[in-house]
Design goal:
three-stranded antiparallel beta sheet
Length: 485
Amino acid sequence: MTEVRTRFAPSPTGRMHVGNLRTALYAYLIAKHENGTFMLRIEDTDQEREVEGAVDIINRTLQKTGLIPDEGPDNPGTVGPYVQSVRVKEGIYTKYAKMLIQKKKAYYCFCTKERLDSLRTEVNGKEILMYDKHCLHLSEEEIQEKLNAGIPYVIRQNVPREGTTSFEDDIYGKIEVPNAELDDMVLIKSDGFPTYNFANVVDDHLMGITHVVRGNEYLSSAPKYNLLYEAFGWEVPTYVHCPLITDEEHHKLSKRSGHSSFEDLIEQGFVSEAVINYVALLGWSPSDDREIFSLEELVKNFDYHHMSKSPAVFDIQKLKWMNGEYIKAMDYDSYAIRAIRQIRKTITKEIDVNKIAAMVKTRIEVFPDIDGMIDFFEQLPDYDISLYQNKKWKVTPQKSLAVLKDLLPELEKQEEWNNDALYEVLKDYSAREGFKAGFTIWPVRIAVSGKAVTPAGATEIMEVLGKEESLIRIREGIRMLEDAQ
């Protein structure tokens, strides 16, 4: 049985888009599900679009997500080089393009930009250029004369005008295209660099790629690929085209969405494991209704035949929910490192940040959620006395004032200042006065936090604040309530 070999072949043009990450993930899962080889190849033939540092971003993203290549620029196997610009220097693409020229499956084209522009036509409101095979009919003498004169040229694929070209996609089935609709695409550009499509075919064959994973926007290019494979006499790999990823408005996910790249999401407080889990579900469904998968579990369960043809909606709220589940399941030490880093963006005073981190662990979906939950520890916010009104506990501002004034002297003389001891004080007071505990706790919560919703109960908050700060806040609550009467 042939070993399954897949590749992730990004262009170094910036941050890794969610769609590219999904391509990398699916290629990794297809290979690892069959104990095959997952390869990284850098496709940098479009030198104008290359962004400095983008290769580092690619490597860093693959490391963070656990999608570690078995072969690539940093761990070469036997089919390198793994960077296309290096392969250009070795003359690999020109060699194979000239091989096609000898087979009459490609030809030199010396047409000027002006002539090519004259061939442009408009079809359905879109401008297209269908080359007219003008240079295909040059004699060998004419071609050699132009080459000797140093006239710039490209090498074009010689696509037949008659008949059809079909291919079988493992997701979309059989797709057939009339050859008359296919252009004689450029294989080698005038700068000597190969085009994306041509370099893909040559490299995938020479590197033994068995499964090509890519977005469905490349469906229309597949017939051209197949004609090249046929021209060389090479075996066509298995195509796995992934469905489009859209935003909630069903528009193609773009940079404007603010969460289109892996690094965007990490900066917004998502954990890489949750991102990978969610991205796996953008176009693939497991055989049951399960949603939470580790990378190892995805390898075991992933079957690309269960991929969808329909566009996948990137639902940021669903990702937040999933991220929250991952945060809940994190071991505390790993969680605390990130949580405390986030807490220190809001709280600068000396305070037990570990206790605050423990309070919010099961309450957040992304780490920046912490900010709005804990800001009151740094400083009591401005709040309205209407917060002391609570219908459930039948508390009013007037009753709250009475509770706080009763409790203040008891709390002032309290020596043991921890959650359990403080809760006993409030519970004993409630029992003496014939109140439910919630009736007593509510005004204390408002006084010490200035918020109706807090990540912990009143006495837990008081323990973290400490005795001095807690009493200052309760006295301030009494003053506010007295001033309002």
